Amino acid sequence: MGFVTEGVDRSELRQIVAGLSAGVVLVEPDQRIAWANDAALQMHGAASLNELGDTVAEYRHRFGLRYRNNRAPERYPIERLAAGERFEDVIVEVARTDRPEIAFVHAARSIVIADAAGAPTCLALVLRDVTPQFEAEERFEKTFAANPAPAVICRLSDLRHVKVNIGFLEMTGYTRDAVVGRSVTRSTCWPAPATATSRSRG
Fold it and tell me: What residue intervals traverse the membrane (predicted)?
């Protein structure tokens, strides 16, 4: 029962955390998984704490994680937490190894509370389920790419091209590399705006 400081009632802490919409997993300094609220279990497709695994090592065995670029992290967020690392909003896809069809996208951050000597006494992994957001982005990406009409997306802050579809490239004859990242005002894909001199000559 060593994951909270002396004098803190563990049952009260659980009651506070239990009703949060965010998922919370409490980990002991010895890397045992001590507790998780219902939201955290749901975000793992789990019905009980046992399905997460008794330890951080078992968790890694039961769940496969990867970043959005399909690269597997060297250390899972829960492993970084167990090492006492503080981090914010690490986005990972999480899938059960026994049931790969059960998958979620988590935004994870750590809460590390230490005693006066600097030793971790409370380790909490806080999770947000951002699956709907990324599913919507994937649907948009597919629709944008498949649209035969020319389409381009520009960033408002600096008017640089962020995305272009096949229709746009076929219309202009440019390659994607020649367009993406370039400013609209400096891009040769668009006609230069008429100057006062050229308008007067017209």
Answer: none
Angle CA(63)–CA(132)–CA(163) in degrees, nearest 5? 105
Cβ within 8 Å of residue 96, ≥6 positions away: 44, 45, 62, 63, 64, 102, 103
Name the strand (E) or helix (H) holding 169: helix 166-172
Give all domains of the chain, ordered by start, each with its CATH number.
10-129 (3.30.450.20), 147-190 (no CATH)
User: Quick check: 23 and 37 in contact, CB under 8 A?
Assistant: yes
Q: Tell me what pLDDT residue 171 has.
A: 85
Q: State which residues of the chain have pLDDT below 70.
A: 1-20, 135, 185-202
* Residue-level pLDDT at 188: 56
Query: How many whole angstroms separate alpha carbon 124 and alpha carbon 80?
Result: 11
Say whether 128 sits in a helix, a strand or coil.
Answer: strand
pLDDT in the model for residue 4? 44
pLDDT of residue 38: 92
For residue 164, the surrounding DSSP H or E stretch is strand 161-164
User: What pairs with residue 164 in β-bridges?
Assistant: 152
